[in-house]
Design brief:
By secondary structure, the protein is an all-alpha fold. It has one domain. It has 5 helices and no strands. The protein starts with a helix and ends with a helix. The relative contact order is 0.20.
């Protein structure tokens, strides 16, 4: 299944709960309700992007949490220019939450 960039961006936002949850989460029943039978395929793609974001090397001697989040967001934008601003914000939010 080929997932278009708009759908993938929305899936990233929904998967982590950006804008709807107090802290990032992973998928959940709501995600399954939204994506139905395509949920597994979409989850695979979203998790691939989130793993990529979490594997961006950060020099913690140079960066604090905020600047590291911005750097990761920038790298993910370079790697995935079709992701929406909201999806990139969701990735940054999850990254900084995971490292806090």
């Amino acid at each position: 299944m080929n997932i278009d960039s708009k759908a993938l961006s929305g899936a990233v936002v929904h998967y982590v709960g950006y804008g709807s949850e107090l802290s990032p989460r992973s998928g959940g029943k709501r995600f399954l309700d939204i994506y139905g039978s395509n949920a597994h395929t979409i989850i695979t793609e979203v998790e691939k992007i989130l793993r990529e974001a979490s594997s961006v090397p950060v020099d913690w001697k140079v960066h604090d949490l905020v600047s590291a989040g911005k750097m990761v967001r920038s790298r993910m934008h370079d790697a995935h220019p079709d992701l929406s601003e909201e999806a990139l914000n969701a990735i940054e939010w999850k990254f900084t939450f995971d490292w806090r």
